[in-house]
Every structure is written in C-alpha cells, then in structure tokens.
Amino acid sequence: MNPRARNILLVVGAVTAINAIVCPRMWQEEYEETYLKGPVTDTWSVSAFDPAPVVLPGASWASLPARTSDGKVAGWIHEGAEGKFVALDEATGRVLWQASTGPVPAGLVRTDGWRIKESVPAVPLTLAGPGVYLVAGNRTWMLVADGGASVKTGELPQQVPAMTGGACLVDGNFWIAIADSRDGGVMLSAAGVLADVRSDRPAGCLPAGDGGKAKVISSMQNAHTDPTAYAPDDYVRGYPPEVCGKYNKSERRRTGNEWCSDMRTTDGDAKRTVMLHNGDPVFRQEDEWLLVRLPNPYSGGIDFNPSIVGFELAWPRAFFDMTAYRHVTTENNPSSTSFEAKKVESRTELIEIVASIARTGELQWARSVVRGDMPRVSSDFTENLHYTRSLLLASHAGSPTQNLYVFKPGMLLAVDQATGAPRFQIGAPLPPPAP
Length: 435
Description:
This is PQQ-binding-like beta-propeller repeat protein. The protein is built from 3 helices and 29 strands. By secondary structure, it is mainly β. The strands form 7 sheets. The chain has a 6-stranded mixed sheet. About 5% of the residues lie in helices and about 40% in strands. Strand 4 (about 70-80) and strand 5 (about 80-90) form a beta hairpin. The radius of gyration is 24 Å and the shape is globular.
C-alpha cells in the first residue's frame, strides 16, 4: 500500500471516535488535527448555568466592564433613569464603592438588546486609568475618580465624529476611537481636557480584529488582532496555508487564507493565536497548529457542532460563545372523548452555549446561557439566529480572581474560568428590538 492511501485510511478510522487521538499530519509537519475530546455531550443536552447570586437588584448593566489587576470589575449601571458607577470585588460581586453620575444622557439610553448588524457593541465602554475611570459612549464621556469622590462629564464638540466603542490608555491619558472612517480618535487627559485635534491610532492600541464569522467582538476584550508587522506582499499574513489555504492548481500548492478568520491573540504574541477554520477552532502552539474539529453524528454519534459566533482568550484558556438551532414539531394529541381540536405546531428552538476548550483539544466545560424559541427580530433568518449571543470578556491577566464575563446589553454574568461556576450577576438581558 502506498503511503498516501495509508494516510487516508488512518484519517477515516480516526473519525469514528470522539476521543480520537491526533490524526496523522496531512500536509506539513506544522499541522495536526483532532476531534474535540473530554466530557463532550450532545448540543441539546448541555446543562444551563446554575442561577447566580444577584448583585444590585433592580439595576441594568450598561457598559463594557473594566477589569483591573487588583481583582476589581467596574462599570456603569442604570437604575431607572439614573446612572451610577460601581466597582465590585471579582471574587464575590461585593460592591466596593459606587458613585452617582446623574440622569442618563439621552444619547446613552438603551431599551432593547442586540440590534441588527451590531457586531461591535453600541454601548458605553469603561477603561481604568491613573486614579480615574473613563466611561465613553456615543458623544458623552465621564471621568469617575477611583473611590467615587468625583465625577466629571463632557460631550464631544460637533465637529468630532461619535465614538465607536474602542479606547486605550496612552501615557496616562485616554485615546478614544471615533467614527471618522480613517481609524482615528481623540485624546482625553485624565484631568478631563479634550484634545482639539484628531490623532491616528497609537501603536500598541490594538483593534478588535477581523469580524469574519465572529458576530460580536470588541477591542475591550483580551483577544486582539495579531499585531505582527507582516510584509505588504505577504498575503498569507501568518496563517498556515496547510489549514486555511485554497489549493492553487497552477502552483500545485495551497495558498492564501480563504478558509480562516478571526486571527487574534491575548498579549501580542502571534504564537498564541486562536482562529476559526470553517467554524472549528485552530490553536497555534509555538511553531505548530492544532485544528480541533467539533464532532457531528458522522464522527461517532455525538452531535456537538454549534456555530462559534464569538470567543475570548485568557492564556492558556480559550472560551467560545456558540449557537445552534433545530426545528421542532409538537402535537397536543387530545383524547378520543375530548372536543379539543387536534393541533400541530412547528417552531424553531435555539440554544446558546459558552464553552471552555483547552489548546490541546479537550472540552473543559460547557454551559447553556439561553434555550428557547428563536426570537424574531428581523425577516432575515440569520439575524434571528445570531441575535442570541453574548460578548465574552476575561479578567485582567494579573487579577487574583480569574472570571469570564458574559455580557448582553443590560446584563453582566461572572463565572469562574476554571469550572464555569457562576459567581454573581448584575441585571438581565434587555428585550429584543421589534422586527
């Protein structure tokens, strides 16, 4: 038997077991693949997160949270028409301090959940600076002193475009991204002085990355675009052609990155890259790549193959937000003596799952966030499917408590990164917008 035929038989044999060993290397020595291993169960058998202790009952979580190395998570909440800035202990959700920010500005009032095409959350962001926190959204900015002793509020001048959901700390000041179509921004000092000129994105202020198949991303996540300065003529840009490339008949090799998306990393090191290949996660491990295939009924009987719509990284952990749907038909089956009419109803059921997958291909844990009828927010089925999603944000790498935050407009859920056990929750998801 020639070596090529032998490799094909080995691969066919490997797909018959979920806990398969790593398959033979198919193209080059830098690439391996495996099926997801560990406590894998059917998509529709994934259990829900346990109920989390509620912090600040009656509040709605209104901003992307700031996470600091000393174990705090902070952000802006709404209590009715009033705004408040809060800082919480990451381990318990205990309120450390809070400050009133006054009536919620009209431009920051939000009454519904995700909106159509809202891949970058159109909510205020929160960023910690030297002795002060920034809250910025739309055209409004606020600076809240650490400890809550003072709050300073301002608006962007009319000639400055609105903010776009990104900000960085630069030499003790805040650079805030604006919608000027040139990836520009404006500087705000920690004392509240706004620059009167536009500025380019500072070096090291990484954008959110390629949206690709990810339906919700943010530059406030730990996961960022790969910052490696590739040569202009390097069309591969670090992607492994063995995994992502399209076969070029004239050159008799794979080139390009047509089948991969979302090349992002936790800390600027390209060797920690995680990306998606046709919906499956791919992990870079130094100079090698591991493609982890999600199992379906054809790979051994278990069907755990939901669509990945977003992810977050916290070295060495990786977390994925996933959705799946199925069509369900139900009948009431009235008794032979009943006058009740027979009814047959069809509906579309949807499930959202958050999963932790190790870079070696093991499923660490998986929990469902939502399960129920698919909401109708659009005439487009895809928009209805992707409405049920969350933005995932990990704790600061230096924090003594390592949480994963599950964010939906109106809600922030904190869970333990290692186990998926809930720690606390603030608010509840806002209702879907009207179709």
